[in-house]
Amino acid sequence: MDLLNIINNLLKIIGDWIYGLVHGLVGNLLVTDLITMGLAAIILCTFAALSFMGLTYAERKIVARIQDRIGPNQAGPFGLLVPIADGIKMFTKEDTTPTAADRWVYNIAPLVIATAALTAYAVLPLAPGVVGTNLNVGVVFTIAIGSGSVVAILMAGWGSNNKYALLGAFRTVAQLIGYEVPMLLNLIPVVLIAGSLSLVDIVNVQSTLNGSPGIPFVLYFPVSALIFLISGIAETARSPFDLLEAESEIVAGFHVEYSGMKFALFFLGEYVNALAVSFMFATLFLGGYNGPIFPPYVWLLIKAAAVFTILMWLRGTLPRIRVDQMHTMNWKFFVPISALNLIILLLVAKIFQPGNAAMPWVTPGVQAMATAITTLIPFLAGLSIASRRLRSQRDAAEALAETRRAANRAAVTTSMGGAH
């Protein structure tokens, strides 16, 4: 039993041991806290770099299998040294700066996007008692700090003094700001049921709810979970929302003028942000580190890896959508559906409230079933209406195209008859 407790609480034991060691050497609490925070930041940066290397390799191999390709297999066994080779290439590649660039803004932008991506992990609970800072507004903090990438992208586009970079920055900023609206709307139900903005409290509620065994919030809010995940993919600008890399239109977008390690920092920010979205989804909707048999931190990694695999699956399967389609889907479908979904959840969660004396048969399971069913119905109805409207628009466009083709054929026939 002692060994099992050590395995389950390994991260907390190591963290407490390091803190005690530093405090024993230094003695001053303030200096101890500063040194411990510095060590935590170093560990976080190391974790981000290793994750970046591992995820790039995994994505190349998985997408290659999806698209019936081989993938990396030359550098090292099974191509395992490809990420290291990429790192060496980035370090040794020439670092160029456009002559007309705003140098301060141009050079600071990669650091801002990498820092914003890493800071989001500060409030993420990794295991019981293992969290950088248990903020009582952790949910708001993650969304707010994630918006730092918007500033960095705008800085990169403006600082490059390149029309394609600036166009790509404006396009990406419009995308990120737009998809933050449905993301926030679908976080509210989680906060309401949990009764807290703290990520630690949200995980604990999914462990035990009103004295009953906890239920992952994905069973309460399947529609909110789906829209949050899609919005998260758009927020990280991954396929099919990778319009910032539309080479045929804006030659790679806002980072077109960057090279070497500056470009690598943008690339790192994308993957670290995508992994942060996976961890957030696992924490908010899949119960976080809760799970049987395996240690808590292992469960969190398994859930985050499963979510990131979905992101890779989508990248290898779906084509890039048009910018008008992306904004239409957000403002004309996700935002109205999210607002309607929130109103329904407020009513249903209030009516089917566990512990209500008038309805003693209502349990957390009954409440979860009621919220899931009542939100799925309008969502499916909205999908049906949207698909029917799109089909009618496509039929009208095809009919118009056929009319024009017929007119062109008639004009060609008439001109040929006149020539004879």
Labels describing this entry:
420 residues; 2 domains; 17 helices; 72% helix
Compute the CA-based radius of gyration.
25 Å
**Which H/E pattern describes the elements?**
HHHHHHHHHHEEHHHHHHH
Mean pLDDT over the full residue set? 83
Q: So what's the overall shape? A: globular
Number of domains as seen in the coordinates: 2
Major β-sheet, in short? 2 strands, antiparallel
Number of strands: 2
So what's the oligomer here? single chain
Strand fraction band?
under 5%
Count of DSSP H/I helices: 17
Helix content: over 70%
Strand order in the sheet with the most strands: 1-2
Q: In whole angstroms, how far apart are the ends? A: 99 Å
Low-confidence stretches: none
Q: Structural class of the secondary elements?
A: mainly alpha
What does this structure look like?
There is one protein chain. The protein is mostly helical and 420 residues long. It folds into two domains: 1-89, no CATH class; 93-404, no CATH class. The protein is 72% helix and 1% strand. It is built from 17 helices and two strands. The chain has helices at residues 2-8, 10-26, 29-66, 82-92, 103-119, 138-146, 148-159, 163-185, 188-194, 199-205, 217-220, 222-235, 247-250, 260-285, 296-317, 323-351, 364-419, and strands at 208-209, 212-213. The chain has a two-stranded antiparallel sheet. A hairpin with a 2-residue loop joins strand 1 (208-209) and strand 2. Helix 7 runs antiparallel to helix 8. The longest helix is centred in the last third of the chain and has 56 residues, at 364-419. It is globular and about 100 Å long. It starts with a helix and ends with a helix.
